[in-house]
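Researcher: I've got a protein sequence and the SMILES for flavin mononucleotide. Could you write out the 3D structure of the bound complex as structure tokens? I'd like something to compare against our soaking experiments later this week.
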Amino acid sequence: MPRADFIPLETFQELPEEDMKRAAREFLETMRRRRTVRDFSPRPVPREVIEDCLLAAGTAPNGANRQPWRFVVVGDPEIKAQIRKEAEVEEVAFYKGGKAPQEWLDALEHLGTDEHKPFLERAPWLIVVFAESYGRQEDGSKTKNYYVTESVGIATGMLITALHHAGLVTLTHTPSPMKFLNDLVGRPENERPFLILVVGYPDDDAMVPDITKKPIEEISVFIE
Ligand SMILES: Cc1cc2nc3c(=O)[nH]c(=O)nc-3n(C[C@H](O)[C@H](O)[C@H](O)COP(=O)(O)O)c2cc1C
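Model: Sure. Here is the predicted complex with flavin mononucleotide in place.
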């Protein structure tokens, strides 16, 4: 790949220290309002909002700038119904068919999740995130991608943040295995399903588990 042209960094905006502290604190408060929601309203969400959030996700740092992600946005009720049907087959095997180790089921117990996934049909959008394991050139030859999982994870985190910032709620859903998604939404074999992001508004009477986040001492170590 030829060396890129270099341009001055004109997009950086420094904040005075007081503004920086306020911005960091306000963003923390914004993020503390994010919750995973499992009770969705069928209210429509404009496609334009989803597109802007995807573009925000697409700004993510990533290995060698290969941008190894593909977001398949499903609003079609029939495809959503098929995704629900196939996902629930896996979920029945997981929750009821002895596929999940008891330890995993115990860890999920407090969330009250089960094999029923009505939100996959009810929410206006499902964003199926695919990780591109390797690229394809026009002549069909393969190109290597780097740090694919890390890159797609970071982009997905930014997508969740962008959607929350836009006033929407999400559910990160990971039916296991997810390979059926390639067939259902027509993606090639070099793309691996990463997760499904369920996107929309919460139901009026949506409930969430009463959980807490670890304090700073438990999630960080400062070496000064
Ligand atoms: C990679 C990943 C996979 C997840 N898979 C599921 C899932 O399949 N079903 C589900 O109900 N929640 C799933 N979750 C949501 C978590 O249970 C949730 O984020 C966690 O309980 C913390 O709650 P909060 O997001 O409201 O802070 C997943 C989250 C992540 C990050």
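Model: Residues 35-36, 38, 111, 113, 171-174, 195, 211 surround flavin mononucleotide (CB under 6 Å). The longest strand covers residues 191-200.
Researcher: Great, I'll pass this along to the crystallography team.
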